[in-house]
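Listing S7. Sequence submitted for prediction.
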Amino acid sequence: MNRAAICFFAVLLEAGRAGAAAPAPAAARPAPAAASGACGELVRAYDTSNRKIAQIRADGVLDNSAPRETNRQLKELNERQEQLVVLELMRMRNCPAPLHGGPAPYMTSAMECALETEKGNYKAEICDISKWTLTESSAPAP
């Protein structure tokens, strides 16, 4: 079973635990929970997915193969579907929305990784997506 299907079943399970088929109206929802525990995990999952999308896009910059581009687009689509599931789980748990959406804040690191990979350095430290940070221009204002 692929990750998207597992995430889909997780949403169904959460809906079953909530005991309601339809979400509560916005006015009836409680205040958002703090970004810790389950909400923190969901925010990290959303952010990791953005990093993966940035890496997928950067890998295509130096490649002109149409079949590989199709595969990259499918990978990105799968990540987007997982993000939708994560966002739905966040909404159901009244978690705060992610501060930034999209892979743009990670494109600099992703491009550096793609260049290192092109040089043959497949184990470059810059390619560890867990160490990527937001670029200053894309970070939210305090």
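Caption to Listing S7: primary sequence and predicted structure tokens for the chain studied. Residues 66-92 form the longest helix (27 residues). The helical segments are 3-18, 38-61, 66-92, 107-118.
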